[in-house]
Design goal:
By secondary structure, this protein is mostly helical. The chain is built from six helices and two strands, in the order ααααββαα. It has helices spanning about 10-15, 20-30, 35-45, 45-60, 80-85, 85-100, and strands at about 65, 75-80. The protein starts with 8 loop residues before the first helix and ends in a 50-residue tail after the last helix.
């Protein structure tokens, strides 16, 4: 459940999409997987867990369930704008894993579909484009919605 009184967006995001199966379903949706059976086959996930996670992602507006054709009984799952906005997070996770967990290679490589060149690492940037490190970032609370007030 998403706790709207928690001022930490990291904690709130993890509660929504931080479970491994959930992120893998979103990853597969970015790779073009759309149908229940295809998610199940590609991930090797149990039907009940897949059904639960797809329901959660749909209820929270990350995926939408659409008929495969007008009037069809079968449906597929597509990323919404909210779901598509998870791309930088997934790319950053893939790049981190490639750097720190697959140092010897054997993982995946994210490339630009047009020229097949590796994409640049995800970086945190200031409004003027400067790259920032952790010591250059401050946390400010929204004065209209202080912590503990919904």
């Amino acid at each position: 459940m998403v706790n709207k009184t928690d001022p930490c967006p990291v904690a709130a995001t993890l509660r929504l999409v931080g479970e491994a199966w959930t992120l893998l379903i979103v990853r597969e949706a970015f790779f073009g997987t759309r149908r229940f059976a295809d998610f199940q086959r590609r991930l090797g996930i149990a039907r009940n867990i897949l059904s639960d996670r797809l329901g959660k992602l749909t209820r929270h507006g990350i995926l939408r369930r659409v008929p495969v054709a007008p009037g069809a009984r079968r449906h597929e799952y597509r990323l919404t704008r909210k779901g598509l906005d998870l791309l930088p997070m997934l790319v950053a996770m893939a790049q981190w894993g490639e750097r720190w967990l697959h140092e010897e290679g054997g993982g995946i490589r994210l490339v630009d579909r047009r020229d097949r060149l590796p994409i640049r690492p995800v970086r945190v940037r200031a409004a003027d484009g400067r790259e920032l490190n952790a010591h250059e970032i401050a946390v400010e609370f929204d004065v209209d919605h202080p912590p503990g007030e919904g």
